[in-house]
Structure formats: C-alpha cells, structure tokens
Amino acid sequence: MADKANITPKVLKWARESARMTEEVVAAKVSISVEKLKEWEEGSSLPTIRQAEILAKAYRRPFALFFLPDVPRDFQPLQDFRKKDAKPLSTGSVFIIREIQQKQAWIRDVYEESRESSLSFVGRFNLQSNPISVANDILSTLQISPSKYSKVNPINEWIDKTESKGIFISRTSFIHPKLKLDSDELQGFSIADNYAPFVFVNSDDWNAPQLFTLVHELAHIWIAASGISNEIEPELKHKDKLHPVELFCNEVAANALMPQELMRSFPNSIYESSNSVFKKSKELGISSFAFLYRALSLNLISVDTYRKLKREAEVEFNDFLRREEEKKEKQKKGGPDYYRLLINKNSHLFTQVVIDAFRGGAIEPTQASSLLNTQVNNFSKLEAFLYQ
Prior knowledge:
Layout: H1 9-18, H2 23-30, H3 34-42, H4 49-59, H5 91-113, H6 131-142, H7 154-164, E1 168-172, E2 174-176, E3 179-180, E4 188-191, E5 198-202, H8 207-222, E6 227-229, H9 244-257, H10 260-265, H11 274-284, H12 288-297, H13 303-334, H14 338-346, H15 348-359, H16 365-372, H17 379-386
Parallel strand pairs: 1-5
Antiparallel strand pairs: 2-3, 4-5, 4-6
Helix pairs in contact: 2-3, 6-9, 7-8, 8-9, 11-12, 11-13, 12-13, 14-15, 14-17, 15-16, 15-17
C-alpha cells in the first residue's frame, strides 16, 4: 500500500484556489474523482505521496508547503489597473505573476545585502506630473532617441537599454507549451521597486504592441505604480473606461515613442496612403493604429482622414497577421529556440545575475536551477546565448 502524505487539508485547498484551478481540472490531472479531491481538501482522506507531488507540480508550489500547519503568507497581489469588466486572471496569469514576484524578491534581497545603490528614477514622478515630462525623462535616462534607433527592431534597443539601467524585462507568451497566456487578459505588469524593478510583457502579440506595452509599464515604474495592465494602446471608444493610471501611462508611452516634435517634423504626404503610414510607423516600432491616433490627437490629420486611413490599415493589418501566422508555422517546424525563449522569459539581466552568483559560489545549484527554470547542466548553453 502506497504511503499516505499527511498534508494539511486547508493548505491543499488554498494551493488549488490560489492557482485558479477548478476541482474538475485538478482531479483529471491526478486521475481521481472530484469527490476524492474534496475528501483530501476536507481532511476525511489523504492522498498518497506520489499524488501530493503531482498536485505540488500542478500548482507550482514546493511539495513541503502542503505540510505547513496553516495557510502561508503569499505574495501581495498586484493592483489590478484593468477595466472592471476585464476577464478574471486565469491559471497562466497567476503563475507568471507569482514567478516574477519570486524572482524580484530574490534579486531585491541580493542587491540590498550587497548595498547596491537604489534607482533614483523609480517614483521620480506621480500621477499629477506632466506625461510629456515623464516621457522625456524616460528617453533621457535610457538614452533613447525614437528618431535614431540603432537597431532594425526598436523593441530590442529598448530592452537592451532598459536592462542596462537595472530594470529587469521578462517576455513570454506561455508558462509551458500547454499553458499559454491570454493577451486579452494580461498584456503586461510592473513591479516598481527602488532596487530591482521588474517589467513583464506578454509576447503573445506582435512586436509593435509589445513595445507600446513595455514603455507603458516603464511609465508605471517612473510613477511607482506597480500593477497589472491589459487593453493598452486602446481604441477611442475605450478611453472613458480605463483606470486613470492606465490613461496616464498610455499618454507617457505615446509621448515617448512618438514625441510631438518628431511627429510634426514628418511631411503631410505621409498621410496620403496607409502604406506610407505603415512604413513610417514600422521605423518607429509602433503600429499604424497608434501612429494614426497620435497624429489625430496632435491635430495633424482630420477625423475623416483618420477614419479612412484606419479602415485601409485594418485591411493591411489582417494581411500582415496572416503572413505572421505563416512565419510562426514555419518556425514551429524548425523547432523553437529553447535557450533564447528561456532568456527572454527570465530576463537577460536576471539570467546573467543568477549565473554569476552561481559561478561565484554565492548560491546553491538547486536554487540557481529553480530561479532560471532549467537544469544546471544547461547553464553553459544559456551563457552562450547571453553574449550573442
């Protein structure tokens, strides 16, 4: 007879509920009935050690946690800046938020212990500040000029220069292949911390919305407003439903990515066709929709011109999405680049810090492996991708 795991029932139930998993889903994972799972959570029967280990893996919790006498203190939930009618956060969103919070808590402790200097730009402004001033400070701090990007894909330059200033950037679209993140539910979130600020961007979308999300979340850092976002870069009709913080951060992102002076410097001929708008917006790393909305808000085009070009852009955008899907399918056949995806998810900077700590003997192999979500014997290959 298999050994029973003398777990604490209320902790087991808390672990499932905090993972936003239904009884039916969990029961299927352990190949038991819902009634049996309820018995475990009520304490009238116990799972085997093997069954409890499966549950720990499913909930992404340490196995030992199930044996605590009471429900442990978890990470404080991030403020939800999404619209009131936004989709509830599902298991994937909960897992990625928890994972980033764990990484952030670890790196903050490391930096505090080593007496690293705090970052002066975190919370330098507030919601009453001028969005243009915040945008200009972001550009100045990161030493970025939207008119002179050095890389073909601007988002790569933004990430490199952001991490060079001590802000960790994580990007992924899934927890594992069978658990993907929903961009309608979660586009990004930020943890504003004076020592180790973290930004997460859902990479389920294409690069232009990701860049807008990234800069939007940087605005959260600059006003020290940690929280969860979705429906960034909104349509006009959504504007009145957004949280004031989200409206402010959208304004900052628009001013950082499309400064007024730069927008006014473009010739009117750009607005003669959606194709010329697309070319210019691509140079800036943004979408045609964001570019047109910005032009409209600056009175560079009329409402009629905006609507006409937007309709044309929507047709071209659908064609673009089709081509992107075809590219993804071809990439799938070749197999995903595991190490590059892992570095993007962990953050390039975070990966470097953890491996350096491991190589220097500051942390144990098991902790390093846990922080980077991969086996220690993969570290050499991971390092090779770090310096490409």
